[in-house]
Amino acid sequence: MDCGTALGKIIAKADGLLPRQEEAELAEHLAGCPSCAADDAATVATGPVLRALAGIRAKEKAPALDAMWTRVRAGIEESRGTRRRASWIARWAWIPAAIALAASALLFYPARTNRSPFHPTSFDVAFEDVESDASTVALVDKGEDLPRVIWIIEDAKS
Amino acid sequence: MNERDGGGVTDDALIRTTLAGDDGAFGELVERYKGRAFAVAVGIVGDGDDALDVVQDSFIKAYYKLKEFRFGSNFYTWFYRLLVNQAIDRWRKSARSAEVPFDESWLSGDASPPGSFTYPRTPEDLARDRELGDALQRAVGALPEYHRAVIVLREVDGMAYDEIAKVLGCSVGTVMSRLHYARVKLKESLKSHREG
Predict the structure, then answer these.
(1) ipTM
(2) Cα of A35 to nearest chain B Cα, Å
């Protein structure tokens, strides 16, 4: 067995994927090849060293880890408060929106005929006759899109 | 892996109790998994304080997502998906992620005879060999994030390939190829330390 093949088998062995027969062949190679034996030892050691490293960190942080539920509970309470506020806002946000809408309606859609209706200046507008029995006049937006009715006057009354 | 404690309470039962309004049951789940979760988180983010934050945030996220948990499936796998994503996000945001270049010199050099060198296998042994711990930490930090997650889930937590695939949302083949790559890199760093 050459060293390249052995390296592949060393990794496969660590993954538990090397058949027993090939493992015996690998062991034979490792016995006579210090370089591959060093590879094998390092590969085998990876798991234990990583676990030992995690163990050291856990030991350093043991008090904080012991209090994890306290931390989590505090975090849950905090985000519960935030969620409650967000839900309260969502529940009542329609009120200012409705007030704004009503104010707009009062401003732009006067009920009395002696008040002139709002004439938008930012639109390219024109008066057009619309064929109908009631002789309705429409104010039409002449934008890039299709003409759009934005105000209607029936029988010369708004 | 629907674990039971001494009183025989399953994860599913604790989840149902939590959903019924008893937060104490969720506390049981936290106590049950916090140690393993920390080991995985610290393996991915490297820093103990960051790992504590990751574990805490993951449990809080899990609490609010508990309604989405499918009973009969594995809580641990479901929770680990949140945990690993949280840890990877944390790693990406951390400045440290940009400060750990992979040192190619670890990959060079001829092997020396094995001699009587033995690698530490316990936290106490490793604590005596700080350089090795630091070298391995740097090597882990230099791995691409999903490769790091795979090696940590496999070697630190002992997860099976199919469980890792579920946690990371990839195929078993991808898990195996990432694991292979990670093993080669970490092996080289350990070997280099031994030779140095």
Answers:
(1) 0.77
(2) 5
